[in-house]
Amino acid sequence: MAYLEYLASEYWPHLALLLSIAVGGTAAVHAAMTKNDVRAAIGWVGIIMMSPLLGPFIYLIAGINRIRHDHISEQRNKSLKHGMANPAIPLADISNIAAAQFESLRVLGDRISHFPLCDGNHIQLLLGGDQAYPSMIEAIDQASKSIALQTYIFDNDSEGRKFVDALTRAVARGVQVRVLIDAVGSKYSRPPIIRLLRKKKITAALFMTNPLGFMRMPYANLRSHRKILVIDGSIAFTGGMNIREEFVSAVAGANTCSDTHFKVEGPVVLQLLSVFVHDWEFTTKENLPFKTWCGSTRGASMPQVPARAIRSGPDRYIVGTHNMLLGAFAVAQKHIRIQSPYFLPDQVLLGAINTAARRGIVVDIVIPGRNNLRLVNYAMTAQLDQVIHNNCRVWRASGNFNHSKLITIDGTWSYVGSSNMDPRSLRLNFELDMEVYGHELAAKIENLIDSEIENSDMVTLEDLAAIPFRKRLRNRIIWLASPYL
């Protein structure tokens, strides 16, 4: 024992060096072998090698993707597959709706989503909390069997408590209720609303992981950004809107933020529900019975359109939305409209957008003039020259912050949901979107975006060059950290 103490006291620098080489080398090899993005691999290997002890610890916490969605049970798999393969649910034929080039996009969706493109869906656009929240609460109050609610932010404010009251009434009626909130998003208000939900006997959980096994902490780098509300398995709400009072004009007044949400009927409801069921089981290990949670998808309102859900996240559906957008930009023939609060596409998506513009496609990109995330706004500004230089039109909207995530292609194809066009949404977050084929919905979204453009200022290369050097340098430095903003 004394000899070991002597060795430790005399040779501890050598032992520390050997330990750092072993730990750092192991972590560097792991990063090089498991990261598919060369920039991520280079970044992590650099961090590890520059700090051989602290670097591997940081990599252990934030660099290793431990999220692996468990396979849901064979019984549920069969049930869901049976429900989506039901002959009463027609698979979509888009030949009468979309031009021929969209057929290849439909095939791409088949291979990315693993959900069928189903006909018979009704999609209703809802503007802001003034339209969306009352409609959602009304649906909750009409629920007779089940309510599944998943969101990123669920604030403990006047609007959040209205949802809690409605869910409490549903529980009192004997309705099965499950609420899933992201662990990071739950901390946007104090005290977290999860406490109130549990106090009211509403079954609720936080979407989180425990990265080291002994530290109770959310895996802050990977988040569930999905927004889903499914009532009795037959009516759903989805889109980009969280639950917070800043979207309600009666509360926020002149500072009301804008957003867009969607009420959904038809076969796509079952797809949205299956995503929730999967996330709920991953988080709580509870198996939700098919008969209770899946209702009839017949009798959707008119008009009816082909639609399907698109999942993406740091699991087996990684880069799902990224690949769908690459395909959509490639088939565009006339006009691409993009509205995003956080426009930070990677170089691959930038290449697809710029290539479309160089082909003569009109590309309009609308971003907020006033952004709720200052650092993201700086990073966005640092990258805008790359699209403007290739003849894309970039518009900074006036007025209050708009959180909408909307894309349309050629007045036919719409892409709506929770995904922002930034590295976090496209690679790190669990997101849920819908692709919808239909001229009516596309026209409504186009009108929304065009209305924003009418009240926007076009960003030019001269405007960007006029920004003082110190601010351009600041923007560029923050842009380097954009994957983690």
From TrEMBL:
Keywords: Membrane, Transmembrane, Transmembrane helix. Pfam families: PLDc_2 (PF13091). The keyword ATP-binding does not apply. Residues 220-247, 398-425 form the PLD phosphodiesterase domain. GO terms for molecular function: cardiolipin synthase activity. GO terms for cellular component: membrane. The chain crosses the membrane at residues 41-62. PROSITE patterns: PLD. GO terms for biological process: cardiolipin biosynthetic process. This is Cardiolipin synthase. It comes from Pollutimonas harenae.
